[in-house]
Amino acid sequence: MYRTHTCGELTLSRVNTRVTLAGWVQRLRKMGGMTFVDLRDRYGITQLVFNQETSPELCEEANRMGREWVVQVEGLVAERYNKNKNIPTGDIEILVDKLQVLNSSVTPPFTIEDESDGGDDLRMVYRYLDLRRPVVRRNLELRHRMAMAIRHYLDAQGFLEVETPVLIKSTPEGARDFVVPSRMNPGEFYALPQSPQQFKQLLMVSGFDRYFQIVKCFRDEDLRADRQPEFTQIDCELSFIEQEDILQIFEGLIKFLFREIKGIDFKEPFLRMTWADAMKYYGSDKPDLRFGMKFVEIKHLTEGRNFGVFDQAEYVGAICAPGCAVYSRKQLDELTDYVKRPQIGAKGMVYIRCEQDGSFKSSVDKFYTQDDLKAIAAACQAKEGDLILILCGKTMPTRKALCELRLEMGRRLGYCDKNKFAPLWVIDFPMFEWDEETQRFYAMHHPFTSPKQADIQYLESDPGRVCADAYDMVINGVELGGGSIRIHDSVLQHRVFKALGFTDEKAEYQFGFLMNAFKYGAPPHGGLAFGFDRMVSMFAGLDSIRDCIAFPKNNSGRDVMSGAPSLIDDEQLDELCLKINLPSSKK
What letters, b where the CB count within 10 A reaches 16 and e where it falls short, cover 82-106? Predict the structure, then answer.
């Protein structure tokens, strides 16, 4: 063994013990005739002492070392004179009498410390060095602990972990597939799974009752802070259950993780909210409930005052920002510019200040009397000193814009505390969503989601009216997971395919093996998948999932460390029967 102890475990109880340590040189300090070295490994940092007076040759050898050199040392544990209360080993130091350099290092491109001087791009190029930083390492240690806790909980609930294929058949509904050419079957392709959806349903047909898998999934979609082209799901499926059973089991999982990992004990059942109410009051199917500012519809209070913008609008909605009547004109103009950004799309914003003397000041004073403004303030439950912000337009786009404004105000007012958690279930999703461009319905979740029993009658006559037995777990405005009760009857499944515009031939080609399996006694079943990366990043208090993934991609889907994706040579292309047809911009 290269070491008897790690760099994070020695304390005063080991004083006068002879030890051997190995690790990386974090930093080196020369003070008079003494040289102090911070030695780091995965477990922590221990201070080494080299004495010029007692061991001049050893001290000179130590002075030649640089950052990130890999060394082995032997010596006695001694009580430290200048103790460091910031690290567990801060009470002791090692009086080194033997040093072996195991490997030298060139000067690293950035400091390997929590507060690094390396930017994101540079650190991603040298990710193997970035992973040495304790702040990043702790994220991966957290990920490990959470994975172990999840397996422990699900095992206790009777789940079996079963692996499913990575090379599957392409089913291009939803996000784009990543495809893999088959050398043995020229001109044909595998797809990488966006989810093990069909296989976990087949496991239910096979009688496996309760399945789970912490599994890699792949989606070829535009990236953002909480998306990666390859990501990890906690994928689960159960037989002979109803929606309530699933909500109870997986609410239990979330409570278990918070208790085990964060020391937070949720005693009360999680709030439940219908999709319709989430959209009506928060403009989002993943509302952040750490703070209020619920939407108030005020169309009926704004009509007939000759203000054409409100009169002609389909929807007029308001939020009340507590204590913000002191906002200056400049701050209000900034908010107006914020909601007018192309990605939000509002045409403008109206405000009402609730003054301390009980009067009201508004950007539409010429159209509305004090009594009119008072009625709006009463509807918004606004108090003196509050600020009412109003948007109008088409219902759904305006609600979404008002959602962004609400979240921006929450951030400005300090309501988005990362140490506060507001979990809820969003339930009763629409079964389908209409796409204007293609003039057809698409499955809001996926084609195997079961409609609510009472709404099956509308599948052919009014698909937009059908609600699904679907549910999402939302915490702090982040969709951590979602699932549904599945269709287990092949006749009903064909009706849903038809509502989605599938021909019998297309449905048979893409999903025939699953439909055929249903003919052999498929049990009632349902499931749920959590985004494991999102879950870890939330528990770690991160804004992006990248720092809880060992080797992530950047926002262009590139691994700048390894150079993936990359070109392949002509010989490989010929073997796969492929030709590259680059767009003109790449030629």
Answer: eeeeeebbbbbbbebeebeeeeeee
